[in-house]
C-alpha cells in the first residue's frame, strides 16, 4: 500500500520538517514527504530538503502579481505530486482561498502557544511579555483566519519567573517536534479531516 503523501510548507530553518523526516525514518510516522513548498528561495529548509531527497518548490511571492496567482501555481504543483495532506511547519503566510479550498480539512498548522491565546507572529514573545505561567503548542486545522482553525491537539509548556526566551523556545520546540508527527500519524491513520 502506498504511503500518504505530505507536502510540508516552511519559510525558515525547517526544524519541524526535520522532526517529521526523523519520525518517518524511525517508523513513527507512516507517510512520505513528497514535496517541500517554501516562499523564501534562500531558506535553510531547502538545503535540508535537498539532503533528504525531498522535491522542492521554492518561490518568491514578489515575482507574482498577487497571492491568487502564486497559490494557483502551488495548487498545480501539489496536484501534480498527488499530495494528500498539507503540513504547515513555520510557513509565515496566511493561506488564501485559492489554496485553502482544494485542500480544506487536509491542511494543518502548528503554533507555539495554547490557542486561542497569542495567535500570529512571535507567540513566544507575546507569552513572555504578558507574564503567563503556561504556554505551549497547538496543532490545528487551517482556515482563512490567523491561527483560528479547529484545534486538534495541544500540549502545555510551563513558564516560571526565571524562564528566558531561549529556554522557552527550546521547550516549545521539543514539544512541537514530538507532538506534530504524533498528531499527523493519528490524523492519517484515521483518514480524518475537519
UniProtKB/TrEMBL annotation:
N(1)-(5-phospho-beta-D-ribosyl)glycinamide binds at residues 14-16. GO terms for cellular component: cytosol. InterPro entries: Formyl_transf_N, Formyl_transf_N_sf, GART, GART_AS. Pathway: Purine metabolism; IMP biosynthesis via de novo pathway; N(2)-formyl-N(1)-(5-phospho-D-ribosyl)glycinamide from N(1)-(5-phospho-D-ribosyl)glycinamide (10-formyl THF route): step 1/1. It holds the Pfam family Formyl_trans_N. Residues 5-184 form the Formyl transferase N-terminal domain. One of its GO terms (molecular function) is phosphoribosylglycinamide formyltransferase activity. This is Phosphoribosylglycinamide formyltransferase. The gene is purN.
Amino acid at each position: 500500500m502506498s504511503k500518504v503523501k505530505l507536502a510540508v510548507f516552511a519559510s525558515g530553518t525547517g526544524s519541524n520538517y526535520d522532526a517529521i523526516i526523523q519520525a518517518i525514518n524511525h517508523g513513527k510516522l507512516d507517510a512520505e514527504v513528497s514535496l517541500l513548498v517554501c516562499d523564501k528561495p534562500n531558506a535553510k529548509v531547502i538545503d535540508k530538503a535537498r539532503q533528504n531527497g525531498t522535491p522542492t518548490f521554492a518561490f518568491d511571492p514578489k515575482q507574482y502579481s498577487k497571492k491568487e496567482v502564486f497559490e494557483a501555481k502551488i495548487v498545480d504543483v501539489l496536484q501534480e505530486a498527488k499530495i494528500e495532506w498539507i503540513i504547515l511547519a513555520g510557513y509565515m503566510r496566511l493561506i488564501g482561498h485559492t489554496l485553502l479550498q482544494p485542500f480544506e480539512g487536509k491542511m494543518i498548522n502548528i503554533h507555539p502557544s495554547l490557542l486561542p491565546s497569542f495567535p500570529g507572529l512571535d507567540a513566544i514573545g507575546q507569552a513572555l511579555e504578558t507574564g503567563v505561567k503556561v504556554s505551549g503548542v497547538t496543532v490545528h486545522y487551517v482556515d482563512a483566519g490567523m491561527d483560528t482553525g479547529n484545534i486538534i491537539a495541544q500540549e502545555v509548556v510551563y513558564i516560571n519567573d526565571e524562564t528566558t526566551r531561549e529556554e522557552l523556545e527550546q521547550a516549545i520546540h521539543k514539544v512541537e517536534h514530538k507532538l506534530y508527527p504524533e498528531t499527523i500519524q493519528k490524523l492519517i491513520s484515521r483518514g480524518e479531516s475537519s
